[in-house]
Structure formats: C-alpha cells, structure tokens
Amino acid sequence: MTDPNDADKTAEGRGKKRRRTHIYGDRRTVSLRMEPALHERMMELCDELATPANTYVIGLIEADLKKRRR
C-alpha cells in the first residue's frame, strides 16, 4: 500500500481498482514484509536518491544475482 490514506478506507471506499496490466503485464508480483523501522530507513534513502522503492529493491536483487553469476 503506497498511499497511507488507503489504510483508513474500506474496500468499498477506495472506489474502482486501478489496473495496470497493459504496463506491467509481463511482470510478476512479489510481496515483501519488513519491520517498520527498516521500511522507514529504506524509504528515507529512496527519497534521498529520488528513486522509487521498487527500483531500489530490483537493483539490489539484480546486483546480487550478477555477483552470484546467475
């Protein structure tokens, strides 16, 4: 959930669900759970880098796979 205001709304209160299948249809979703303090630190860094969190995490995974030559 990227919008903190969504947490206060019911499913009915959010309105029509936005679909992005035409943009992200070839991608897969991964759910990542982390401690609130870690999430806050990551978001602060992403803000400093002006990088979306998704891009940051993907970069970490790609760098690790490259390091492991996979």
Distance between the termini: 31 Å
Q: Give the count of helical stretches.
A: 3
- Main beta sheet strand tally, sense and closure: none
Number of strands: 0
Share of helical residues: 40-55%
Structural class: mainly alpha
Overall 3D form = extended
Low-confidence stretches: none
Work out the strand percent: under 5%
Characterize the structure shown.
By secondary structure, the chain is mainly α. The protein has a domain at 30-70. Helices cover 47% and strands 0% of the residues. It has helices spanning 21-24, 36-49, 53-67. The radius of gyration is 15 Å and the shape is extended. It starts with 20 loop residues before the first helix and ends with a helix. The model has no long low-confidence stretch (mean pLDDT 81). It comes from Denitratisoma oestradiolicum. Keywords: Plasmid. Residues 1-14 have a biased composition (Basic and acidic residues). This is Toxin-antitoxin system HicB family antitoxin. Residues 1-21 are annotated as: Disordered.
Give the key terms.
70 residues, mainly alpha, 3 helices, 47% helix, extended, plasmid, Toxin-antitoxin system HicB family antitoxin
Short synopsis of the structure:
This protein has helices at residues 21-24, 36-49, 53-67. Helix content is 47%, strand content 0%.
